[in-house]
Amino acid sequence: MADARRLLAAALLALAAVVPARAADAPASAASAATIKFEAPAAHLTAADPAIEARMLEITGELRCLVCQNQTIADSHADLAVDLRQQVREMLQKGQTPDQVRAYMTARYGDFVLYRPPLNGSTAVLWLAPAVLLAVALVALALVIRRRSQLPDDQFEPDPVLDDDPRSGTPA
Which residues lie closer than 8 Å to 100 by C-beta, 6 or more apart? Predict the structure, then answer.
């Protein structure tokens, strides 16, 4: 069974390596020439001052995109993220500090917008749950090991003897 899985994995890897190479060698057909290529808009540096643009990218790199939720505002191409980048840029041009920008975004969208939310009453579960779950798992593991170590040997099932086991005395 394991050999069949290895053979299948090797065949799939070989196929994955051959197909793109064949596609690159194939001549362009009329159908592929008519295919429309979609490219997501790239974030362009639009501030006149590169220092403000760098600060904007630093701040938006710490803020979660509310549409995508797994990207920062700096990385996202969603319309809301584009608008929020522009808003941060304008706030920085007006002389606001990065802390003021983060405070504004947090007041408007909540702690969810921050990739590193502060430790407070509403976010304590986010910070403490992993440690609590790890402690519970370790205590449960310790209890199971302790109880199993106190059981007599006749409480455990014997190990199965395989046909090709050299200790069994029978040839394979």
Answer: 91
Quickly state the pLDDT bin for 151 (edges 50, 70, 90).
confident
List Cβ neighbours of 15 (8 Å cut-off, separation of 6 or more): none
Rounded to whole angstroms, the Cα distance separating 87 from 93 reads: 10
Neighbours of 60 (CB within 10 A): 23
Q: Regarding predicted confidence, which is higher, 35 or 63?
A: 63
Q: How far apart are CA 41 and CA 39, in angstroms?
A: 6
E strand intervals along 36-167: none
- Choose among 104, 99, 97, 57: nearest CA to 81: 57
Q: What is the pTM of this model?
A: 0.49
Question: For the domain with range 50-113, which CATH number is right: 3.50.50.60, 3.30.1360.200, 1.10.8.640, 1.25.40.70?
Answer: 1.10.8.640
